[in-house]
Design goal:
A hairpin with a 2-residue loop joins strand 17 and strand 18. About 45% of the residues lie in helices and about 20% in strands. Strands 4-10-9-6-7 form a five-stranded mixed beta sheet, with no helix packed on it. The chain has a four-stranded antiparallel beta sheet with strand order 12-11-15-14. The protein has three domains: about 230 residues, Serine Threonine Protein Phosphatase 5, Tetratricopeptide repeat; about 120 residues, Sandwich (Immunoglobulin-like); about 190 residues, Roll (C8orf32 fold). The protein is of the alpha+beta class. It is globular.
Length: about 575
């Protein structure tokens, strides 16, 4: 690490990498004393370290590129600034460079980087002219609550800032509160014109606000006004792709007197298909909003299917004049579809159809087909994507892999029971340490070892091929997450309350104690990768020490490391995969 008159320099690439790992809380599965070659999360290539002179040149080149205006190469700007920017802002040119980074990151949908750059600027200069970049970044990542908290602080401090009002209203628009969206966007335009702002910025804000207003008016049945607003937005230079999308929907709205919005998953993981519509975090394969902007109440039929995978879903709805209805499309899997036979990602088509049930005859309003990817049941999503290069961890789906009712689990426990005190598993009714020891020793006797399993790339984020406990017991090998899930499964099956511990680079298991000579409910832990190489006592001691290290580093408090309580996942509706 080089030094300059401004003090130690650390490239923003390093800061971003730290934030990425803090966000995911997971890296390659490895331990110094208990090695495991399981692999939980890929690492990007190392960033080149620049000298101070090289860093300054990179920043100068980036700023010069940014100043080219509409012809600038934002990818080049971002790459140079990520490598060259210092830790702290001490001069106006440095603030300008960070603003260039935030603005270019915005256009590239790199919202985490945009947020980091803006936070750095605001820490240096609370009177920064564009504070809206911070909540805008949160909106881009879908963190509406956090964005609203930022706005609650920033708007009172900047009451004449039209950009802040625009972002505040954008949340309302994204939540499909159309009347509030229309009013709020109109207010942001009026504030911009009343208090003034750079001409180009005002023009862009008005153009984008006009598109949002047009979208709101269309959903409210105000079609002539919506068309006029779209025409104005186009003249002002609104985003062509966005504007054209609304224009296309306008054609359908004018013809059918109905507005249809739809959402669908691009990837459909079979391992959690049973959770669709039952567990909030799983969502649904597809959802349709039907807005009746006609003069009478009307009936519609909504259909949906995943070709070759599901039956055809059909439901009839009545939509009152001026009202709307939401339909969740969760088509049942085909009776002959073998979930276990799907061993790799498979392309398919998701068909969605909306038909008006007119007394004079059915009228098809929309009939579309979307490309989707079917993920095999062992594809476990561990982190979801929040922007082009950042993710956030997902813990809940792990509960679907904890499968205590599988036949192989029953067979294993019948053998392990002979090692338990008095040949019984009694859960919290007797001491728990000997019961887990019996499981540990039976796995050791069967020669369970640990191997690498490659991660599975996913458009949604990062997934890992993670076999279910019955498959692990059959193969007698596992990567670290599979081992932790296996232990959790066996513990739950004998009535204990298991915990899966995720720390950077690793996962292992724990459980709540009972009658072990310590206060009941005290968490105990076992290093699951040590089954093949150490004693039970050593594995318990090692895991306890690891948890204490994470606590001392405040990783649990920061969310970098996490305790995943299987009991809580069950309360949230995360049930085991039913295809065992």
């Amino acid at each position: 690490m080089s030094k300059s008159p401004r003090g130690p320099r650390r490239s923003l690439a390093f800061i971003t990498a730290v934030s990425f790992l803090a966000l995911t809380g997971f890296g390659p599965c490895s331990k110094s004393q208990a090695p495991s070659t399981g692999k939980e999360m890929p690492h990007g290539p190392p960033q080149k370290k620049l000298t101070d002179a090289e860093a300054k040149q990179a920043v100068d080149d980036a700023v010069a590129e940014y100043k080219k205006g509409p012809t600038r190469d934002c990818a080049k700007v971002t790459k140079l600034l990520v490598q060259g920017l210092p830790d702290e802002i001490k001069t106006q040119p440095e603030e300008d460079a960070f603003y260039s980074l935030a603005d270019c990151a915005h256009t590239q949908h790199r919202y985490m980087l945009m947020k980091e750059a803006t936070v750095r600027i605001l820490s240096h200069n609370p009177k920064f002219a564009h504070p809206a970049l911070l909540p805008q970044a949160e909106v881009g990542m879908g963190n509406y609550d956090k964005a609203q908290k930022d706005l609650d602080i920033l708007i009172p401090a900047n009451p004449k800032d039209a950009e802040l009002l625009y972002v505040k209203t954008q949340i309302t628009c994204n939540q499909m509160k159309w009347a509030d969206c229309q009013k709020g966007m109109g207010d942001s335009i009026r504030v911009a014109k009343t208090y003034g702002m750079p001409a180009a910025t005002e023009k862009l804000l008005e153009a984008n606000a006009d598109v949002e207003i047009a979208d709101s008016q269309m959903h409210l049945g105000q079609l002539p006004q919506a068309q006029a607003m779209l025409d104005t937005a186009s003249r002002l230079g609104s985003d062509a792709k966005w504007t054209d999308m609304i224009k296309k929907e306008m054609v359908e709205a004018k013809t059918a007197k109905v507005v249809i919005d739809e959402f669908h998953q691009h990837e459909i993981p079979l391992g959690v298909y049973h959770l669709y519509g039952k567990a909030k975090m799983a969502g649904v394969p597809a959802q349709v909003w039907v807005y009746n902007i006609g003069a009478t109440d009307r009936q519609f039929r909504v259909e949906g299917e995943v070709v070759g995978v599901t039956e055809r879903f059909k439901t009839n709805i009545t939509v009152l004049k001026g009202g709307n209805e939401i339909v969740q499309i969760i088509p049942p899997l085909k009776s002959g579809f073998n979930v276990s036979a799907q061993r790799s990602d498979t392309p398919s088509q998701l068909n969605i159809k909306v038909v008006e049930l007119d007394p004079k005859g059915e009228k098809t309003i929309r009939d579309v087909s979307h490309e989707v990817k079917i993920l095999p049941r062992d594809s476990l999503l561990l982190a979801t994507r929040v922007d082009e290069d950042a993710t956030k961890p997902v813990d809940g789906y792990i509960g679907a892999w904890v499968t205590p009712n599988a036949k192989a689990v029953d067979e294993f426990l019948s053998a392990a029971k002979k090692r338990a005190p008095k040949s019984t598993f009694a859960g919290p009714q007797t001491a728990t340490l000997p019961q887990v020891e019996a499981i540990f020793d039976e796995l050791k006797a069967r020669g369970v070892s640990y191997v690498m399993d490659p991660e599975a790339a996913s458009e949604m984020g990062f997934a890992q091929r993670t076999r279910l406990p019955s498959d692990v017991l059959s193969s007698k090998n596992a990567q670290c997450l599979e081992g932790a899930i296996l232990f959790a499964t066996l513990m739950e099956a004998i009535g204990l309350e298991p915990i899966i511990v995720r720390i950077p680079g690793h996962a292992f298991a724990g459980w709540h104690s009972a009658k072990d000579g310590i206060p009941d409910g005290t968490p105990l832990f076992v290093e699951t990768t040590m089954v093949h190489s150490a004693s039970y006592d050593d594995a318990v001691s090692y895991a306890k020490t690891e948890v204490e290290k994470q606590q001392q580093a405040k990783h649990f408090a920061q969310g970098i490391s996490r305790f995943i309580e299987v009991k809580e996942l069950r309360k949230a509706g995360i049930t085991p995969q039913p295809w065992e």
